[in-house]
Design brief:
The structure is a homodimer. Chain A is α+β, with helices and mostly antiparallel strands and about 475 residues long. In chain A, about 35% of the residues lie in helices and about 25% in strands. In chain A, the strands form 5 sheets. In chain A, strands 3-7-8-14-11-10-9-22-23-21-20 form an 11-stranded mixed beta sheet, with helices on both faces. In chain A, helix 2 packs across helix 6. The radius of gyration of chain A is 25 Å and the shape is globular. The two termini of chain A are about 30 Å apart. Strand 5 of chain A pairs antiparallel with strand 5 of chain B.
């Protein structure tokens, strides 16, 4: 297919400057804008609607799997944050500290929550007494704050939005099962709702969450060949339970510590949507999450009956789809560019000629394919095309990921690929931290995950040549 | 009607200690619990579900009236908070200050937002340029923080949950219209969704919001005769616009300042639900907002077919209502008390005898009325009874408010009523701050509002005897 003509001049081309392309899209599609608060975004109506669709669908899936929402405090007293050693070491350097309330200096500093394990554990210690109180399957939707040095909209901001699930279980087995269940919720959501293919696996000890025994992750590959960690699920064992004195009387009438998990997906995922599906004309939204699924554009609007017909179609379609008629006095060209920029999956054009022929035109955002549709078949055809857009986006992203995934067996190859071929690099690993650190130093890559689907690429570690334990995905990451 | 037997012994009776009754209900109905963070609550699953129902219904009404959601930063730099003089004076004494990010001391302090006028204005100054950009009808759902000295769950907490609408308009008329429209959304929501009758009116200058030109309010009367301000809507004129340099080119091609409103309803409203409808057996929830509308209790559960029938009814009812079968091995008495405590509007009992007769029993939470219902008519009857519960709660609350509303014409009467008759006190006022302050000092009452529905109780001010300007509602308030 020939390179398509770029309709919108204001945004930088991906190939010229990917980072600039990204921020241009965020701004021009009106997802977010910078605020006068360093590292914090204003998420604009279109971005908020996107996040609400993500939230509603994930929330539905969480409730379907038996979870309940709660709302925990925004603040954590310093002494509470310090209760679990690994956890405080991981987070203390990057929290915002409150030292004064009104005029009064506080006797103990409070931090703005960077994550809420400590608050949940504090609460669980109050309400868990017997095995009958288990499992506790809680989640919360909120924002958290981490004092980041450099920030980028959605990808890395001081304040970001997320959900954090925190669950407590009678046994380790049950908790591990929950950790995996929620990872599957995330991967299914990413693939079937957002059309983003992901690799599922386990983080290495170096990359796991502060305080966790193991961290599972879904990793997606962006257009520029960088990886984006898109959702994580942690198994904590009973480390926090011990630190927070959470004990319950078991079925055997003995006191024991419950086993814990936590899992989260954040507004970063909006960055993943942009960088997986977007193109040089702007955003391309997967239909399931798009705030607007069909933009209806009346052509020659002043002609009798055109606007009426457009509104009639909108009325009919709005029972099943998110639609809008644009009856503004902007030019047709402006409108085309606008809805392309905003990534609306389908554009519906209807003019006097179409009305005569009892038809309209549907144009796909992802590949610009035009279809003439009889008005009697409109609803069926819109549903079909939205499904095709979803499938098309998923396949395109999967093909790109496959093209950008390389296997290497020695250090020279690793360095060469890391330097010249952005993407996932599959390579064997001995399991030693030293090799992980060396690969970061010499090739600039980090381990993304130990994928559940293992392949044997070689017998020996790509770095030290000793016997290999696992095949890993490596790469540069956001 | 004879005083009903109290089924649950653990909670304090309202008449004995209303404040203790309130906190008992919050705790025993598992709405919220205290946390180890001073003045912050843990909102438990049942309380969160209640808030989500409030949020979803209000959000639907906001969207229906053309509003869009956005998400603003959590923090406000000190210099931004200081831009509008009255506003900073009102809020600076009660904000939480962040002075450090990680190890680093900040060059400028940030406060945790106590409300977001300044953030919205900062953003509006970036995006409003022409009359074509107006109106801007934004809302956000979030939590805010005010450094309160004494706190009570839902009623007054350091962190609380709310929505804040912030809108910008071409003209003063349009902005005032919006202020009133949103007040009407609140009063309609309070009365028709929460079954809480409210008085609508204007706040006096003393009681209005910091920085506003005028504040409209809905005031509800609690069981103990104290008032609760349940929602407010503010008209700002162009004061903030000037302070924040928000200018637009008008239809006349001249630069002008837009006119602003803001409006909010908070998690306090959960306190209003508790204290308007609750009784000595616990919570009583209006059906529209109840997380669980029908608790289905199989009687003699071990008998063949009982549990199956209960589940079958649940299946059928769940298409329209929020229902749950309690098949736990707790006693029937325990279950009755539990769902009474949680204020579930209807209890459905079904046992072997009922199944034989193709019927079940529905028991209303509000008045304990029992109805035998043929299973074929169940859905219709449940809908009817839920509507009756709603109507019954509203009428009961309205009657109580009318019984507890007094008119007074001189200071002695005012003092006597304020001391001995908790409730609303209607009295004339000259419009002078001095009288408002004196009434607070000698009678302990504050002005609740200048109601839209004025009555002429006397010609002269209840305090100074000079000619009266308005009839006001006065009272003690939460």
């Amino acid at each position: 297919m020939a390179k398509q003509k770029k309709m919108v001049d204001e945004i930088t081309s991906m190939d010229v400057d990917f980072a600039k392309w990204y921020t241009d899209v965020v701004k021009k599609a009106e997802l977010a804008s910078y605020s006068n608060v360093r590292g914090c975004m204003v998420i604009r109506p279109y971005g908020t609607a996107l996040w609400e669709n993500i939230r509603n669908e994930l929330d539905r899936r969480f409730k379907e799997t038996g979870h309940e929402n709660v709302m925990m405090p925004l603040f954590i007293p310093e002494s509470l944050l310090q209760k679990e050693k690994d956890h405080v070491e991981g987070f203390a350097p990057e929290v915002a500290w409150i030292t004064h309330g009104g005029e009064e200096k506080l006797t103990e500093r409070l931090c703005v929550r960077p994550t809420s394990e400590t608050l949940f554990c504090d609460h669980y210690s109050e309400i868990i007494h017997s095995y009958r109180d288990l499992p506790k399957l809680y989640n919360q939707w909120c924002s958290v704050v981490r004092w980041e040095k450099t920030t980028r909209p959605f990808l890395r901001t001081m304040e970001f939005f997320w959900q954090e699930g925190h669950t407590m279980h009678e046994t380790a087995e049950e908790a591990i099962e929950e950790t995996q269940r929620m990872l599957n919720v995330y991967s299914d959501f990413a693939e079937n709702f957002l059309a983003i293919p992901v690799v599922k696996g386990l983080k290495t000890d170096k990359e796991k969450f502060a305080g966790a025994e193991s961290t599972y992750t879904i990793e997606a590959l962006m257009h520029d060949g960088k990886a984006l960690q898109s959702g994580t699920s942690h198994y904590f064992g009973d480390g926090f339970s011990k630190a927070f004195d959470i004990e319950f009387t078991g079925r055997d009438n003995k006191l024991q510590y419950p086993h814990q998990t936590s899992w989260g997906m954040s507004s970063r995922i909006i960055g993943a949507i942009i960088m997986t599906h977007g193109d040089d004309n702007g955003l391309v939204l997967p239909p399931a999450v798009a705030p607007l699924q069909v933009a209806i554009l009346p052509i020659a609007m002043h002609k009798e009956g055109v606007l009426e017909k457009a509104n009639e179609l909108a009325q009919k379609l709005s029972k099943t789809f998110r639609v809008k008629v644009d009856d503004s006095d902007n030019s047709a060209g402006w409108k085309f560019a606008e809805y392309e920029m905003k990534g609306v999956p389908l554009r519906l054009e209807i003019g006097p000629k179409d009305i005569e022929n009892n038809q309209c035109v549907l144009v796909r955002r992802d590949n610009r394919e035009k279809t003439f549709v009889a008005l009697d078949e409109l609803e069926v055809k819109v549903a079909e095309l939205l499904q095709e857009v979803h499938n098309g986006l998923y396949e395109k992203a999967l093909n790109r990921r496959e093209e950008m995934t390389y296997s290497v067996t020695n250090l020279d190859e690793m360095i060469e690929k890391a330097e010249n071929r952005p993407g996932f690099i599959k390579a064997m690993w001995c399991g030693e931290l030293a090799c992980e650190e060396k690969l970061k130093e010499v090739a600039g890559v980090t381990s993304r995950c130990i994928p559940f689907e293992q392949e044997k690429i070689a017998d020996t570690c790509v770095c030290c040549g000793k016997p290999a334990k696992h095949m890993l995905y490596w790469g540069k990451a956001y």
